[in-house]
Amino acid sequence: MKRALFIFASLSTLLLAVSGLHAEEIASVNTNFRFTGSDRVSVEAYDDPGVTGITCYVSRARTGGVKGTLGIAEDPTEASIACRQVAPIKIDAPLKQKSDVFSERMSFIFKTLHVVRIVDAKRNTLVYLTYSDRITTGSAKNSVTAVPMPSGTTIPVK
Question: In the UniProt record, does the keyword Transmembrane occur (predicted)?
């Protein structure tokens, strides 16, 4: 039984790693020491796949311990986001008014972190919202940031 659980946890960790290939961990800090692996807050960079030149930095809590090491722990719901222009902006195709641009599991099955891009056409600004949801309920905990377009750049909207 323990071997089957270990194999299951290893496969789930591999699947989570493959689904999160677009995230790059910039750094983390330990928040709660454990002998089997500390809890931490990590900062990850996500490049917007639809808008070249914008990177979103998401900080979120990660659960340590044995379950955290195996990838089966449920991470806390809290997350914060800051998106910035890091290079010249290039938008290849019209953007949907609202689209889920990143998502990553925060627990084995039940919880997912989302980053949604919202086009504020009136202000020529891209707004990014982060929140988490569960299979049965969402979370009111969220964070928002905005990136105004440079002069001369208009956001094409579908």
Answer: no
The torsion angles phi and psi of 105, rounded to 5 degrees, stand at: -65, 140
Cβ pair 12, 67 in contact under 8 A: no
Ranges of each domain in the chain = 2-148
Residue 27 makes CB contacts below 8 A (sequence gap 6+) with 42, 43
d(CA 106, CA 114): 10
Name the one residue in this structure whose structure tokens are 């990553």: 104
Q: Are the CB atoms for 156 and 103 separated by under 8 Å?
A: no
Cα gap 63→61, rounded to integer Å: 7
d(CA 53, CA 147): 11
Q: Give tens-digit pLDDT for 50-107.
A: 999 999 999 887 666 545 444 545 555 678 999 999 999 999 999 999 999 988 765 5
**Which range is most confident: 37-51, 80-94, 127-141?**
80-94
Q: Provide the pLDDT for residue 129.
A: 96
